Amino acid sequence: MCISATIYSKHPDTIEFSLSSRIAVGWLGLGMGGISNGMKGNDLALCWPNATGNGALISQRSNPTTNGNPTPLASVAFTVQQAKSGLSKTNFICTFSRPLNLSVAPLTSTAPSVNVIYAVGLQAVNAAANGNPQQAVIQRHTYTGHGTLIIQRKAGSSSDPNNTISISPGAGASNGTGSGDSGLDSVLAQEMLYTRLVKVHGE
């Protein structure tokens, strides 16, 4: 999994995050503002491909007191950048913007970096019958990690043709290889293969 964080000069009050996986996954998650070794206190963004694969869906959730299942928020402050999201062969990327001044995990426009947690789930998200991402059932993650993202600054806006996404590996982890890049992809690929073998042999 790779992650980038960018503030554009035309939108100085928002930050754009891009999450990417090089293998097929069920969902990708990013959190900030809480503890680094769990979900407690973190503002969580959970992303997965939409039904057509040409974009992404996002759910904003929080768990202020425990590390149990996070609770969907009544109002979602995140906006998916659909032109920068979707499936490409087995790759999935989700790009979304987030206001800097949220009450949970607020950021300043001059912040050099942001501490984050991240997670990857291999099982597909069970969509709600009404299509509301806040009501989707999301299975437990396969891999989690944490690290510090350097915030990039770019001129213009996110939609400018020259503002392509620059993805950099995450740093640090709570388990797995800790690279957040090719090593993580290898771990996830092995986990996926094991899961398929278990299903085939009925173990």
Structural class: mainly beta
CATH topology: Immunoglobulin-like
Distance between the termini: 29 Å
Number of strands: 12
What sequence of helices (H) and strands (E) makes up the elements?
EEEEEEEEEEEEH
> Beta fraction of the residues?
35-45%
CATH superfamily: Cellobiose dehydrogenase, cytochrome domain
Mean pLDDT: 82
The top level CATH class name: Mainly Beta
| Distinct helical segment count | 1
Shape: globular
Helix content: under 10%
Main beta-sheet strand count, sense and barrel state = 12 strands, mixed
Ranges where pLDDT stays below 50 over 5 or more residues in a row are: 166-182, 192-203
What is the rounded Rg? 16 Å
The total number of structural domains is: 1
Walkthrough of the structure:
With 203 residues, this protein is mainly β. The chain has a single domain (2-201), classed as Sandwich (Immunoglobulin-like). The protein contains 1 helix and 12 strands. The chain has one helix at residues 182-201; strands spanning 2-8, 14-21, 27-32, 43-49, 56-62, 71-72, 79-80, 86-88, 91-99, 113-121, 143-154, 168-169. Strands 1, 2, 3, 4, 5, 6, 7, 8, 9, 10, 11 and 12 form a 12-stranded mixed sheet that branches. The chain is globular. It starts with a strand and ends with a helix. Residues 166-182 and 192-203 have low confidence and may be disordered.
